[in-house]
């Protein structure tokens, strides 16, 4: 006879320290799971307090309020007749044994891992919980739950990613259901790794694997991308959405325990290892996950996991992040300087994508999204139906022209604004720029000139920077007062639009209009942004983007030549955006310094560049990177999407004052170049 069990996992949009909201979302997810017949419900990591509390973990208030929420869950009738991470009786406190401490993670700063494998101790519950559960102590440690019909083992987030995950020995010791509550944030192209880890775990060892994850913006640069799933014996049986505006998403699957047992029975190599494994302490639970057998009850069927392309991930992830920021900051919309280039166009398209998702969620009957959008636009009876109309209420775009701006960029910005429906403003910053330069001239008696007019490089750069910084001041002025001028309440969040490659090199003016409240594209490469914009042309029907894609990238801060742009980004930088992505990945992901990077690239680029050319490119990059590293300390908080982000806040911890000449490192490169050139010359002499 089969033993069919219905299990549930979920993705919750929890918010750090929002104990009231987090409690309600947990209760809602349990109600949905029970309504669907589930007897076990899994939630994401740190779902009570929210994953991103960071140094608030040090505060006694965080622990106190978490225990109070736990008490409220224990007291609620919703948690009866189901095994949960938080249930009517505390069965086991299973501490995390492997902490995430790389990239954006700093778990060792606040927590200590449990290091005693397969051991437990008695934990004395706080009195507020003792009064509710009538328990004085509970097991605390590395143990598993034995119900009347199966065995359940837990691992937490990072433990799935370790070389020897707990599920390996748990499975060998007879655990049939593995659960993993995660706090895993989005990075482009990361979903494949997460899904493959789960399917491989159950392919080798058999069993059911439930993965829960947080979703949404927890209050900082990260976006948690859901992807809750249920797998068995190497196949996926339920897939959660990676990006959505739903605060609570619950997945359920009905699976037959006998399928696990028969799968394992024929893997003799696994069974031989199982005969030698040390047993886990078992906490006995007088509860069955399977109900009375119903032969007619259908079981879930395997499905193929559907992945988003990177361009689709960009269209969805940062848009959801923007929505969470907008509704939780209680602002009335966004203000975006729209230049007519790819980066600001991509940012505008992300707001438009957000508006599309809001309209779709309202159409599906999502009451929370409808309530939030009514609060944002300050109209209690408003119901959004058209993304363009909603975009006109939420997004204000502004083309800030100067004497160095071209008619082409003006037309491109206006055309895109018309197609997405934003409230668009056109203005000229020349009076403000001339006033500031005039103050300098009045005080010093000198007048700086652009290089094309005979000025020095210092004069040329200063005149470019003053234009850029004026745009930042104008942006914040209009963000604060443009709605007031239209008789509407509230203020606007200023959006930045510097991409990850420009930030890496420091190709931006410190405190220019890249300095904003938030930046949805600051963790995305120029190459990926162009692919995203191309997707918008086709999927969102925005033909104005075609001329933007076709135009050369330019800051338009130097004088025009016969009305045409004379300045391009790649000429200014001295390298291409494609090269910048290569440098970024080698610097951060491969962890190379100047010499190691040269050694790698001299081989990778051997068909297109000589050793001397590679050396010059590497030295140019590191010189500019180190010279401008100080700008990373003031980068606008940006959506984290790329693993080579130079974000100085928490992800890429490095000095911001360097010896930009790199004398020792560059000398090592020169020695290698001379050796390689000598070998090449010997080869030529041999041919002669």
From TrEMBL:
InterPro entries for this protein: C-N_Hydrolase, C-N_Hydrolase_sf, Gln-dep_NAD_synthase, NAD/GMP_synthase, NAD_synthase, Rossmann-like_a/b/a_fold
UniProt pathway: Cofactor biosynthesis; NAD(+) biosynthesis; NAD(+) from deamido-NAD(+) (L-Gln route): step 1/1
Alphabetized PROSITE patterns for the sequence: CN_HYDROLASE (PS50263)
Keywords, sorted A to Z: ATP-binding, Ligase, NAD, Nucleotide-binding
Domain CN hydrolase: 5-257
E.C. no: 6.3.5.1
GO molecular function: ATP binding; glutaminase activity; NAD+ synthase (glutamine-hydrolyzing) activity
SUPFAM superfamilies: Adenine nucleotide alpha hydrolases-like, Carbon-nitrogen hydrolase
Keyword NAD: yes
GO biological process, one term: 'de novo' NAD+ biosynthetic process from L-tryptophan
Gene3D superfamilies: Carbon-nitrogen hydrolase, HUPs
Subunit field text: Homohexamer.
Family stated for the protein in its record: In the C-terminal section; belongs to the NAD synthetase family.
The protein, known as: Glutamine-dependent NAD(+) synthetase
Lineage per the UniProt record: Eukaryota, Metazoa, Chordata, Craniata, Vertebrata
